Amino acid sequence: MKTNYIVTAIVLVMFATGACAPTKSKTNAQQSTSQSSTQGEESSEENTYDPGLIVADPGNPGTSPGLVSPNDPVPVGPISPVKNPGAGPDIVIDDPVPVGPIGPIEGSPAATQAFIEKLYFKLLHQPVDKDGLAFWMSKAQSGSVTCDAMVFIFLHQGAAQVSLNKAINGDLGAKIQYMRQFLFYGVLDRAADSAGQQYWAKLLMHGYSLEKIIDHFLESDEFLKRCSAAGIQI
Questions:
Q1: Letter string b/e over residues 82-97, b meaning 16 or more CB atoms within 10 A of that residue's CB
Q2: Which pairing describes strands 67-68 and 54-55: parallel, antiparallel, or unpaired?
Q3: 164-176 pLDDT tens trace
């Protein structure tokens, strides 16, 4: 009995002095190792790469934070005008193309020639011939003929004279048609406006002659501006 007491006392002393601590430390180390292993497995599971998921902006509706499926629609914002390929940064496709002056320079020989060619085409209904162009170019450039006199001559020869005779002997409709084709289109080089046509038609209804109307067209400011632009004396 005394021996048992001694053994019991020794054991108690060992526990009190920490002699059995290594056993406890071993147990704690095993527990710590087990916990670390478990946490490592959990961390590995969280960081596992899933090729079916793509990192995206956080908070995308319908997906987990920071992840989006490849099949999800890509949000598209407003589209700005497409830049013109190869152009400067300030030029876009919708920009209008700058256009310079069209036609011959006013008062130049080219402008005079264009004026004469239109007289042949619109009044005589024929292309200009080489000799005719040379003749009228010489007259215009020398100032030996005024612009109104030149056009008056064209109106009284060839196809223009035939049409004038028909209009003079025709009804009001024939006279109006002559004005539209030869005076507005031929002399003024534009289509007839409604107000102008009605004005001259009323004069014709009251007995005004086509010859007098021709004179008015050849004296109008609009016609004289055409002559100045063509470089022909007025």
A1: eeeeeeeeeeeeeeee
A2: antiparallel
A3: 999 999 999 999 9
Length of the chain: 234
pTM above 0.85, yes or no: no
Reported as a single tens digit per residue, the pLDDT across 63-113 is 444 444 455 554 555 544 444 444 444 444 454 554 555 667 888 999 999
Please tell me whether residue 54 adopts helix, strand or coil conformation: strand
Whether residue 218 contacts residue 187, with contact meaning beta carbons closer than 8 Å, is answered with yes
| Largest CA-CA distance found in the chain, in angstroms, rounded | 166
| Beta-ladder partners of 161 | none
CA terminus-to-terminus distance, the chain: 156
What are the structure tokens assigned to 228, written together? 């100045």
The type of residue at 153 is I
> Is residue 130 within a helix (H) or strand (E), and if so which, with residue range?
helix 130-142
Q: Quick check: 110 and 228 in contact, CB under 8 A?
A: no
> How many beta carbons lie within 10 A of that of residue 112, not counting itself?
21
Residue 75, burial from CB neighbour count under 10 angstroms (0-12, 13-18, 19+): exposed
How far is Cα 184 from Cα 198, in angstroms, rounded to an integer?
Answer: 13
Judged by DSSP in three states, 92 sits in strand
